[in-house]
Amino acid sequence: MFGAGNARADLMFVGEAPGFHEDKQGLPFVGQAGKLLEKLLAQIGMQRSDVYIANVLKCRPPGNRNPLPDEIEACESHLFRQIELIQPAVVATLGNFATKLLSGRPLGITRVHGQEQETTIGGRSVLLYPLYHPAAALYTPAMLTVLSADFARLPALLGRSSEPVPPAEPALKLVAAQAAATEQLGLF
User: Fold this and answer.
1) Which of 94, 97, 139, 183 is least enclosed, having the fewest CB within 10 Å?
2) Beta-strand pair 90-94/124-131
């Protein structure tokens, strides 16, 4: 599964790998996590057709397990080429695997979500913006607050809003702490 969406998108999402529904339909983010992604986009005045969506892995891992390092290595050049072709201004990573690969840093999503960074991917400068995977909010409903707050910053990062939106409130750190415990269990 290569990816789907607007080939001229300013915003590109990168997830982990196709899941069951994605594998059946041949499109990224069409299951429950995809439905939540569409709702989050709607909250910021965007729709799926405005963005491009891809995954680190292009095939579903057996048993829907976490990607192995050699699988990531085998697919990463394809992802870098996608980013080069789409030429997004912002690449929003969804979850640990995409964030670690594209940031080149071993820090987990709990520590870096909502913290944009300039980086070079596919030979061009982009703004990398780590987000929790929408599935995290499906497993831990309190995560939806954090995810919504991080999503609310996207219009400003894309330059579509003249008012800068500050990073997520410190009060959301409790929810993030709960998520960190879930992350360590490998649930997202």
Assistant:
1) 139
2) parallel
* Radius of gyration of the CA atoms of the chain, in A: 15
Where is 13: in which H helix or E strand?
strand 11-15
Instruction: Report the alpha-carbon distance of residue 146 to residue 149 in Å, rounded.
Output: 5
Per-residue confidence in pLDDT tens, the chain, 188 aa:
789 999 999 999 999 988 888 888 888 999 999 999 999 999 999 999 999 999 998 888 778 788 888 888 888 889 999 999 999 999 999 999 999 999 999 998 999 999 999 999 878 899 999 999 999 999 998 999 999 999 999 999 999 643 444 454 433 443 444 444 444 444 44
Q: In what order do the strands lie in the sheet with 4-5?
A: 4-5, 52-55, 11-15, 90-94, 124-131, 117-121
CB atoms within 10 A of CB 125: 9
Give me the helices (H) in 26-130, please.
32-43, 69-86, 96-103, 109-112
Asked if residues 113 and 100 have their Cβ atoms less than 8 Å apart, the reply is: no
For residues 57 and 15, what is the distance between their CA atoms, to the nearest angstrom? 8
